[in-house]
Amino acid sequence: MADFDITSKERDGMGPHGTSVGLLRVLGPAHVWALGVGIVLVGEYMGWNFAVGKGGAYAALVACWFAGILYTCVAMIDSEVTSTVAAAGGQYTQAKHIVGPLMAFNVGLYLVFAYTMLEAANAITAGYLISEVARLSGFEGTLDQRPFIILSIMFLAWLNYRGVLATLTFNLVITAIAFTAIIILFLSTTGIVGTSLMQHADLMSGSAALPYGWIGVLAAMHFGLWYYLGIEGTTQAAEEVRSPARALPFGTLAGIMTLLIAATLTWYVCTGLIPWEYLGDGLNGSVAPLFTAALLTNSQPLVWLLGVGTLFATLASANGCINDASRAWFSLGRDKYLPGWFGAVHPTFRTPYRSIVFLVPIALAFALKAPLDQVVTFSILSGLLNYTFMPLNMIMFRKKWPMGSIIRGYEHPFHPLPSIVLLSLCAITFFAVFLGYGTQLVAMIAFYIVASLWFHFWRYRFVNRASQFTMPWPRPKGY
Amino acid sequence: MAHYVAPKQGKLSQLFDVIVLMALTFGALYIPMFLGLAGGVKTVPEGAGQTWEAMGQNAAQIAQYNALGFTDPAAVSDIINARYDYSFSVTALVVMIVIIVAYYVLMLKFSETEYREVIAEKFDK
Hints:
The complex is a heterodimer. Chain A has a single domain (26-464), classed as Amino acid/polyamine transporter I (Up-down Bundle). Chain A is globular. Chain A contains 17 helices and no strands. Chain A is mostly helical. By secondary structure, chain B is mainly alpha-helical. Chain B has helices spanning 11-34, 59-67, 77-81, 90-123; strands at 42-43, 83-84. Chain B has a two-stranded antiparallel sheet. Chain B is elongated, with a radius of gyration of 27 Å. The interface between A and B is large, with 87 and 72 residues.
């Protein structure tokens, strides 16, 4: 057994890579929770409602719960592997140690694009929300949303540039407010406090129940992922938490529990107030469904609260996405999978500043030019490819380093059941994406195949072989 | 096993690599959009109704649309009538499955070759 304790204080920052300046180990479990939930909670404020459009309200609920099972498996697997492979890059670093360089390169790209697209979607929603506030405040005409989109991304990138502790403490506060706003809306509209405004029976009667039949339920799984997409981002903090073995499993599992509650409450409130066709059209109908639900209560305090909640959720998510995408990009650069220039750490702020700055114009290009549903689909597809990799990674991890051969920060129960369930649900979701968005799916896979060939036949020559394996583990079994 | 020493990459070459990757990224999103192949195909059936009754809306649904500011049903008829078409060809489905499986097989096969090299160099000292 390797005599290495992952909670050791000696592995501070970028120690395994032998550089003198590393990322700071300053985060606790609450920051991990804030990073995970902060990225995802916006999924309750916008985007999940496309699932209603694809299959109806009941289909969105089934998708919510099945996607919840999918992400519970993701959280269980992540908690074990990340608390053991405690380094920046998350699943990318895991793939590098467990599966191999090409898979790692692909996983790194999944992470960067899933988060960058999510960041773009957040900025689009923030711009929409500000234009709605202007409209409700009496502004006549069409407000140009672009300055607000640009400012949101630039401000958050600056915050990320300045330091991780302030960034995630900011996230902790605004995420807590956004989550509380959902709880207050639920309590105020469902009859727990005051009169119930819920009309599920009337709004979901007749053909509104399952407008597409059972195939709609399958199709809804596509956007069902949006309720939770990004919780796996907690792994990106692995190199910056004080105690990976404690903070990562605790923060991640607490995060998925929070999201399961928030997703179900969101579905209940929105489907009880908004007709399904309007709710399911996130482009021309309800762009921000919780905000739309608040509008239907005729309560000004609720409208303002959910407006603030939506804005905070989008900012928290974009903030977490910048944090995660930059860590993944930085890790790819540090290992020379991408130009090594990106692998630099700021000498004062100890952040991957070049990666943070580089990804800003890419996020802006998507936020300013692409429609919301396509940006969301692009993000979901990258996430889905990552989730399909995870069970393969988990099975190989246990096979190459059986229990007892290395110290694990956390051991998830029932192996290999979560991996099998996750793989099955990913297969269903691929089919769901195929129903309506098959072209994007093929375009995305084609992109990853071409990028992989480019990496294998060109880029990989700049990578030193042995230096990629940085964990102090024994030789993997079978090699 | 001989120790592999990676060549040092020049700045121009690094820049070129970034440009290639970015071109691929933007291509993946924008090419389907420019070709008009992207996005969920939601269409409004020809001759779809324009009144609340013809669109199958009950009193509760109409009241909520009114509360949202839509008193004229024609203003939301496209939203209410639009539907996805979930018919698909089995061939297209099979092609998609083959592409996804082939992608992962390619990943795992190439990765395995590279991984054996990494492990050999790391542990065969």
